[in-house]
C-alpha cells in the first residue's frame, strides 16, 4: 500500500473515469472475498464438467481466493469492454441465424473476428494501473484478463457489472452479454460497489437454444458438451455423437447469447481492435479449409483463433464441411476440398476428413 493514504473515495471515482477514457464500458470495484463461490466451484470440478481444461482444477480453491493468488489483495477493480464490431448491423442476430442456416458459411464466434482480447484488455488495464500509481503512489497490484486462476465472473457480479445469466455468462441490463472482462487485483481498500440484481425471470431462451444441450439448467454448464469447448479447448477428436450438432460453427458458439433477449441492447466496440478481420463474418468453409499452415499463421496473426493451431482449425472445418451434407450432399467443391486433405500428416485431421467424406457418400480417392 502507498506510504501516504490517498482519498480513496475520490480515487475510486477517478478510476472509473480513467477506465472510460481507456475504452472500458464500465469499471466497478468489488471485495476480494469469494467464499460463497467455493462450494459451487468444487462441485463443478468434482463432476468433471470442466473436461480437459485441467487449468481449471490445477490451482484448486486459489481460483476463489484472490488474496492467495496475489498476497495483499483486498479489492478487485473489475472492468468490461464491449466487443461487437463497429460495423455490426442492427439486425445482427438475424444475420447470424441466417449464416448458421447456410451450409457453405463458416461461422466464427463474434468475439474472435478481430484482435485477441487478451492483449487488448491487458494493455489497457496496465495503463489504468499506471494512472492509479501516478495519482496514489506505488501500490501492490496485478492485471488479469481470462489468463490466470481468477473467478472473474463472480467478481464482476460482486462488483455490480451485471448478474450471472442462466447460461453462466454475465448479463447487463444496458449491454447484454457481448463484452469482455478484465481485473486488477489491488491492495488498496477502495470503497466497493453494490452487486446487481438478476433479471432473467422465467426466460429459458439460452437453455432451449443450445445445440448440444450443454446448459443443464439455470447456471449449470457442462463444458464438455459446449461447442466453444469442443472447437477451442478440446485438443483431440470431437466425440462422434456431438459432431452433427456442431453444424457449421468452426470456432466458438454464440447461440445462447444471440437467443438472449437482453442482447438487443448489446453495444458496438468503441476501440477498433475488435473490428472484423479476414472477412471472418462472411467467409466460406471451403476457402478457409484451403489455407495452408503458413497462411493460417499469417492471416490470423494477433487473432485469438491462432492459439488453437492449424491442425484443430482443419479439424473444425472438416466437421463443418461434413455437416454441410445435410443440404449439399456430394457437392463437388466440398468433396474436392476434403479429398485434398485426406492425406494430411495429422491423424486428427485425417480422421475428421474421413468422417466428413463418408457423410457425402465419398471416399478419399480422386
From TrEMBL:
Pfam families registered for this protein in UniProt: Fer4_16 (PF13484), QueG_DUF1730 (PF08331)
Sites where the protein binds tRNA: 235
Keyword tRNA processing among record annotations: yes
Binding site for [4Fe-4S] cluster 2: 210, 226, 253, 256
Main location group: cytoplasm
GO annotation terms (biological process): tRNA queuosine(34) biosynthetic process
EC number: 1.17.99.6
UniProtKB keywords: 4Fe-4S, Cobalamin, Cobalt, Cytoplasm, Iron, Iron-sulfur, Metal-binding, Oxidoreductase, Queuosine biosynthesis, tRNA processing
Cellular-component GO terms for this entry: cytoplasm
Domain 4Fe-4S ferredoxin-type residues, every copy: 188-220
Metabolic or biological pathway, per its Swiss-Prot or TrEMBL entry: tRNA modification; tRNA-queuosine biosynthesis
One of the record's GO molecular function terms: 4 iron, 4 sulfur cluster binding
Binding locations of cob(II)alamin: 63, 146, 170, 181, 228, 253-254
Domain of life of the native organism: Bacteria
Top enzyme category: oxidoreductase
Catalytic residues identified in the record: 146
Record text on cofactor binding: Binds 2 [4Fe-4S] clusters per monomer.
Compartmental location: Cytoplasm
Subunit organization: Monomer.
Protein purpose: Catalyzes the conversion of epoxyqueuosine (oQ) to queuosine (Q), which is a hypermodified base found in the wobble positions of tRNA(Asp), tRNA(Asn), tRNA(His) and tRNA(Tyr).
Family: Belongs to the QueG family.
Protein's name according to its UniProt entry: Epoxyqueuosine reductase
Amino acid at each position: 500500500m502507498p506510504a501516504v493514504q490517498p482519498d480513496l473515495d475520490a480515487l475510486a471515482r477517478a478510476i472509473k473515469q480513467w477506465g472510460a477514457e481507456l475504452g472500458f464500458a464500465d469499471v466497478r470495484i468489488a471485495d476480494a472475498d469469494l467464499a460463497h463461490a467455493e462450494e459451487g466451484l468444487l462441485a463443478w470440478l468434482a463432476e468433471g464438467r470442466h473436461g480437459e481444461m485441467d487449468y481449471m482444477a490445477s490451482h484448486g480453491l486459489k481460483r476463489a481466493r484472490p488474496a492467495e493468488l496475489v498476497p495483499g489483495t483486498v479489492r478487485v477493480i473489475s472492468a468490461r469492454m464491449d466487443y461487437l464490431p463497429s460495423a455490426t448491423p442492427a439486425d445482427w442476430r438475424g444475420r447470424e441465424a441466417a449464416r448458421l442456416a447456410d451450409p457453405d458459411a463458416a461461422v466464427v464466434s463474434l468475439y474472435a473476428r478481430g484482435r485477441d482480447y487478451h492483449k487488448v484488455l491487458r494493455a489497457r488495464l496496465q495503463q489504468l494501473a499506471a494512472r492509479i500509481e501516478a495519482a496514489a503512489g506505488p501500490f501492490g497490484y496485478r492485471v488479469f484478463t481470462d489468463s490466470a486462476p481468477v473467478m472473474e465472473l463472480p467478481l464482476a457480479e460482486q462488483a455490480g457489472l451485471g448478474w450471472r445469466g442462466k447460461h453462466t455468462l454475465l448479463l447487463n441490463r444496458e449491454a447484454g452479454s457481448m463484452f469482455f472482462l478484465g481485473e486488477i487485483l489491488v491492495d488498496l481498500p477502495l470503497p466497493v460497489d453494490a452487486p446487481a440484481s438478476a433479471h432473467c425471470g422465467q426466460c429459458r431462451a439460452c437453455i432451449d437454444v443450445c445445440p448440444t444441450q450443454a446448459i443443464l439448467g439455470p447456471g449449470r454448464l457442462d463444458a464438455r458438451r459446449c461447442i466453444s469447448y469442443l472447437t477451442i479447448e478440446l485438443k483431440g477428436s470431437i466425440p462422434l455423437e456431438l459432431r452433427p450438432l456442431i453444424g457449421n460453427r468452426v470456432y466458438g458458439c454464440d447461440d445462447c447469447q444471440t437467443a438472449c433477449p437482453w442482447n438487443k441492447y448489446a453495444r458496438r466496440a468503441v476501440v477498433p481492435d475488435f473490428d472484423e478481420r479476414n472477412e471472418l463474418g462472411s467467409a466460406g468453409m471451403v476457402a478457409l479449409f484451403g489455407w495452408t499452415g503458413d497462411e493460417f499463421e499469417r492471416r490470423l496473426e494477433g487473432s485469438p483463433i491462432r492459439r488453437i493451431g492449424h491442425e484443430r482449425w482443419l479439424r473444425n472445418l472438416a466437421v463443418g464441411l461434413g455437416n454441410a451434407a445435410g443440404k449439399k450432399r456430394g457437392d463437388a467443391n466440398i468433396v474436392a476440398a476434403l479429398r485434398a486433405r485426406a492425406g494430411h500428416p495429422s491423424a486428427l485431421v485425417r480422421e475428421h476428413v474421413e468422417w466428413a467424406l463418408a457423410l457425402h457418400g465419398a471416399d478419399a480417392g480422386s
